[in-house]
Amino acid sequence: xxxxxxxxxxxxxxxxxxxxxxxxxxxxxxxxxxxxxxxxxxxxxxxxxxxxxxxxxxxxxxxxxxxxxxxxxxxxxxxxxxxxxxxxxxxxxxxxxxxxxxxxxxxxxxxxxxxxxxxxxxxxxxxxxxxxxxxxxxxxxxxxxxxxxxxxxxxxxxxxxxxxxxxxxxxxxxxxxxxxxxxxxxxxxxxxxxxxxxxxxxxxxxxxxxxxxxxxxxxxxxxxxxxxxxxxxxxxxxxxxxxxxxxxxxxxxxxxxxxxxxxxxxxxxxxxxxxxxxxxxxxxxxxxxxxxxxxxxxxxxxxxxxxxxxxxxxxxxxxxxxxxxxxxxxxxxxxxxxxxxxxxxxxxxxxxxxxxxxxxxxxxxxxxxxxxxxxxxxxxxxxxxxxxxxxxxxxxxxxxxxxxxxxxxxxxxxxxxxxxxxxxxxxxxxxxxxxxxxxxxxxxxxxxxxxxxxxxxxxxxxxxxxxxxxxxxxxxxxxxxxxxxxxxxxxxxxx
Length: 495
Fold this sequence. Notes:
A nine-stranded mixed beta sheet has the order 5-4-1-8-9-10-11-12-13, with helices on both faces. The protein has a five-stranded parallel beta sheet with strand order 16-15-14-17-18. Helix 5 links the parallel strand 8 and strand 9 (188-191). It has 495 residues and is an alpha/beta fold. The protein is built from 17 helices and 18 strands. The two termini are 33 Å apart.
C-alpha cells in the first residue's frame, strides 16, 4: 500500500529540489491530425483531410520532458543533426524548461524524427527519419566532456541513460557515463535497448520491459521465467535492482533481498507511446526524494496510467500525479487528511483543471444524518468538497468540558469514509478564516439553521467573488441533543 503522506510530500516538496541529467537518443515526434471520409481512388488507402499539426519531444527528450513536468530541473545530452528538426527540437526543449547546453550537433546524421498520421483519433501510418550508426569517437569525447562539466558544476542528483538504439549509447559512451557516475557518487539509471546489455555494467539500476528481457533471456539461455531472468541480469551487471515493466501486469523490481511487485493501474488505454519514459522519470524522481522502492514503483504506475489515457507522447503533469495519489488513497480512512500547505497546493491543482471547490466547516462530533445531509448538499454545489474540522482543543474551548465526544482521529476516520468528501483539514483556531484566505473556495456551505449574515467567513468568501450557500438540513438533529438524550451509543459500545 502506498504511503500517500510521504508520496504527497515528495511530489510537492521533494521533486522541485531535484536536478537530473538525461543522456540518450533525442527524437522529435510529429503528429498530423485529420479526418477520414473516403478511400483514395489511386490505391486502397484512406484519404486524410488534414486538420492540424503538432510536435512534441520524443525518445530521451521525452524522459527529460517528464522530469520538468514533475517539477524537477533537467539537463539533456545527446546528438542531433545540423538541420531544421534539430532547431525545432531545441526550441521545444528550451520552452519546456530543459537545459540543452549538452546537446551536440553531428553534421553526419539527421535528427531522429517520427511522423504519425491520425485519422479520427486512429493512427494510420508512421514515417521515421533516423540515423542509427554510432557517432565518431571525437563526438563521444565532446559529449562526455559536456556531461562531466554538468555533473561537476550543476549538482546533478542522478544520470539517466535512455537508449533507443539510435546510435548514442555506444559501448564507449556507456563506459564513460558509468565512470562519471562512480567518480561523483551519483546513481546511473538505464532504460535499455537491444541485446548488448554488457555495456550497461556500472549502472545502479536498469528498466527493461518484458519483451526486451525475454529476448535477452533467450540469447543467454536463462529459461522462460522472466522474473528469474531479471534476477540473473541483476547479478550479471552488479545492479542494485532491475525494474521489469510488464504492461498490464505492472512492474516487478528484483533486488538482492526480495522481489517488489506492484500491479498496474486500471485505466482505458488510448496510446502507450512514451509510457516507459514516464515510468522511468517518475521512479527516479521518487527515489531521489527518499521514497521507498515500493512507493516509487506505485507512483510510476499511477503516472503511466495517466499518460496512456491520452493520445501521443504526453509527459506526466505534476498536478495529475498529485491528484492520482489522492484518489488512490480514498480507501484508507486517514488518506484524505492534508496539512493546510499541502491542501493549498491540491486546491490550486483542482482550479487549474477548471474544477469548482466547496468548503464546509464544523465540529462533526458524533456524525449523524444531519451532517450527512449537509455534506451531500455541499458536495452537490461543486466538483470537490473540503471539510475543515475543529481540533480537539478548539472544540473544548468552544463547547466546554466533555467535548468533543469523538476525538479528531475518530472524526477524521468517519468523514474520510464518505464518498462525497474529497479532502479534510484540521484547524486549531476558533474560526476557519485562515483556511478560507488560503484555499479560496468557490462555495462556503453551511446549514440553513444559519442566516447568511451569521456565517463566519462570509465577508472573506464574498470579498474575492465566492458564494455562501445554505444547505437545507434535517430538523431536530444535533450532536448536543442526541448525546443528552442518550440516543447514541458511547464510543466502543456494541449496542
